[in-house]
Amino acid sequence: MGTTRPYDIAVVGGGIVGAAAARDAVLRGLRVVLLERGDWASGTTGRAAGLIHSGLRFARDRKFHLALECLREREILHRIVPHLIRPLPVIVPAYRGGSLTLRRIRWGFRFYDWLSMGSADPVCQILSEREALRRAPVLDGKGLLGAGLFYDFHCALPSRLVLEHVLSARERGADCRNYHEVERIRPGQGSFRLEVREVQTGRRHVLEARAVINAAGAWADELGRRAGPGWAARIRILQGAHLWIDADLDTALWCESFPPCFAVPRDGHVVAGWHLRDLSDPAQAAHPDVEGLREWVGLARTRMPGLARDRSQLLLAEAGAWAVPRGQQDRAGDLPCRFEVIPSGGPPGFVTLAGGNLTLFRRLAEYGVDAACRHLGTAVPGTTDRTPLVGGGFGDQVVYRENLVECTENLPHIPREVVDHLVSLYGRKACDVIELGLAREDLRERLGPGCDDRKAQVVYAVRQEGARHLDDVLLRRLGTGLRPDRGLGVAEAASRLMARELGWDEPRRRQEQERFEELVWAQIRTAQEVWR
Questions:
Q1: CA angle (385 as vertex; 382, 386 as ends), nearest 5
Q2: CA 279, CA 424: separation in Å to the nearest integer?
Q3: pLDDT reading at 120 higher than 70
Q4: Which of 17-31, 279-293, 304-318, 364-378 has the lowest mean pLDDT?
Q5: How would DSSP label each residue in 72-135?
Q6: Crossing angle, helix 16-27 and helix 158-171, to 10 degrees?
Q7: pLDDT tens digits, 474-498
Q8: End-to-end CA distance of the chain
């Protein structure tokens, strides 16, 4: 075991909260290490539907502080990472005899418009029954009184939002290590000793840090127990599951019920679901509850009968574990929204972050770093609300894209659609991917027929983004993660490129391809089991 000089803060957990905390801390001038036992965003964040909530549902329920918080965070995200966050129209239908009336929707809209005054959001609207069915023909027309139309924001590939934070932290000097598991944390005099194992090689190291931020999400209690005996459970673990459905929608849908029925359009298909259940072990979270999803499908048929008419439309099923503070009691299936920083209960300087989502993660990370800084005796304020991420930093995305198109219009095999696709994933870092294509002609080619991703993106994912397995690339770094087949059709081509970069022999390459294919086929089989 080797030892390095102490870090100021060790952040454990490479989801959206941990990545944001590492970026926040390094922007304050602290020496930071970020550790994740798998790949970045390989847990809960990578399985999220990607909604960045506007806060309207909280304004409607008179949770005004949460509505204001969501509005503020959404505007910040759109400013610092504009290429990944886009407006998304959402329709909320009202039915005769339902608890959500048009009057209640209208009241919520008025208050929300007042809260969001000064934002660039389109004005909320009340749609007639006919207009609602025209905009969302999958809805049940029986008893439909009308609907509300408002705008949330959407991040189609949440794993890239995590990567933006990791790469931003690394660019500022943070030591970011995926596939590094923290096996034990030993509190000492003024610092912690973290016993870390490299998952790929089995090598072990000892790292020292003056404070630890526990951002392990659903595994936060497990990490707390590794920091010492007597750890009391802090986390309630919920499993959320959704289905990918072959359907065409122009707007997202949110049908009021418990559990709620939501449907979010994404790259030629729809992500729908919201079955929630309590878990005692986060390891169970990766396996969707088939019976629970069947119940949800039955409920969805009463409100969105046109969404899934036969088995062939169910593409795959996906699930993840959500952590919320213990003691939070929402109605069954309601949206977990509260988050909490737990600075005590463990050794001094061990800060646990509980809760959070794609809307409020930055605030939770900021509060957590604030708590760690108090332990360290420093009072440097955070600046993440005004510092662009690595792919951001351009004033106007349209102008930036047009300038890049102009610069590349005379270059071979780099037409406008390639530039548009790369900017939508990488922002201003699209130039780095284009440079790889200019250096090697074969890397300009598509990964496969009908695939927008280029071979250069696979090489970039390995060299610059820390990808070490085939699913790291196809599910969490490229647009293939949004395709209905999740990249099955290009798995061989991508694995051969990775083999060349990482030195895999043929048996290892085939093992990677087979592992990836089994992972995706398991999701497909689960979706087929849901239908009956």
A1: 100
A2: 36
A3: no
A4: 279-293
A5: HHHHHHHHH-TTT-EEEEEEEEEETT-SS-HHHHHHHHHHHHHHTTTS-PPPPEEEPHHHHHHH
A6: 20
A7: 999 999 999 989 999 999 999 999 9
A8: 55
DSSP state of 447: S
DSSP state of 6: P
Q: What per-residue confidence (pLDDT) applies to 258?
A: 52
Give residue for tokens 């998304």: 88
pLDDT on residue 333: 44
pLDDT tens per residue, range 325-347: 876 555 444 555 667 788 766 78
- pLDDT > 70 fraction of the chain, expressed in percent and rounded: 89
ω into 288 cis (within 30 of 0): no
Determine whether 3 is exposed, middle or buried from the number of CB atoms within 10 Å of its CB (0-12, 13-18, 19+).
exposed
* Under 8 Å between Cβ of 490 and 482: no
Instruction: Report the distance separating Cα 531 and Cα 427, nearest Å.
Output: 39
Conformation bin of residue 114: beta by default, left when phi > 0, alpha when psi is -120 to 50: alpha
Is 0.90 topped by the overall pTM? yes
Phi, psi of 143, deg, nearest 5: 80, 5
Candidates 55, 65, 256; CA nearest to 152 is: 55
Residue among 239, 241, 194 nearest 214 (CA) = 194
* Cα-only R_g, the chain: 23
Q: Which residue has the higher pLDDT, 331 or 172?
A: 172
Helix then strand count (H, E) for the chain reads 16, 17
Gap between the Cα atoms of 422 and 480, Å rounded: 13
Q: For residue 465, what are its two tokens? A: 């983004």
Helix, strand, coil share of the chain (percent; to 5): 40, 25, 35
Distance CA 304, CA 137 (A): 9
CA neighbor of 162 nearest in space, from 87, 241, 81: 81
Reported residue count of the chain is: 532
Q: pLDDT tens digits, residue range 403-449?
A: 777 676 666 667 788 888 999 999 989 989 998 988 888 999 999 99
Hey, what are 222's tokens?
């497990």
Residue 268: strand pairing partners = none
Q: Count Cβ atoms within 10 A of the Cβ of residue 163 and give its class: 0-12 exposed, 13-18 middle, 19 or more buried.
A: buried
